[in-house]
Specification:
By secondary structure, this protein is of the alpha/beta class. Helices cover about 40% and strands about 20% of the residues. The protein has an eight-stranded parallel β-sheet. Bound molecules: zinc ion.
Amino acid sequence: MVLIDTHCHLQMKTFKDDIERVVDDAIASGIEAIINVGFDVKSSEKAVELSRKYPFMFAAVGIHPHDAKMYNSNTLADLNDFLNEEKVIAIGEIGLDFYRNLSPPEVQERVFSEQLFFAKEKDIQVILHIRDAYTRVFEIIEKEKPKKVVLHCFSGSVDDAKRGIAMGFYISFAGNITYSQGRLTDAAREVPLTSMLIETDAPFLPPIPYRGKRNEPCFIKYTVEKLAEIKDVSVEDVAHITTNNAQTFFWGAIHG
Ligand SMILES: [Zn+2]
């Protein structure tokens, strides 16, 4: 089984002491690529550093809605510098989070729009973080019209999923799909496998049976198993198709 963890944060402090073991376990569990996603300038830089160190790691760079208040006139220049690195393959995670509102909503919206415009200009993939803000994100997206988008750690409704798919976006599921929330299960049932990506969002959102612990890439198999059950297909099919999707989306691979 070959898998890609399309979204995690191994650059965070919590992995400082045992990253080698985490990497070994990821490889042993069939993960062939990991994308570490930035949430501010510092974590983006650290994701780039990891991508230099480990052949199978890649990086996304961007300012998370929680950190939107840190955004300043140098930020886009910093992100632009990171884009010169060969293994930086997306802008993210960017978006809106009206659940926690750690930055004021109007600041979030400005920072999101500017980075979305920047990503479009650079013709690079976008990783979206959306929490309690799907309607507003879709309004902004309809204005900016980015093409290469993944809705990371999907938490929306069936209609939100359908709307994203109609726009040609990928929908990414994380460990919280194992928590068996009816709404999320309904959404996953609605998303065709060909529009699906998988991720851990480690260290966050550990799947059952690791809920309450620190999440790691090797736990991705529980998400694969749950999606196979929901879609009523084999685990191998979920692995194979989502890996192909990730290769197509992030690396532009052509599949026959
Ligand atoms: Zn994340």
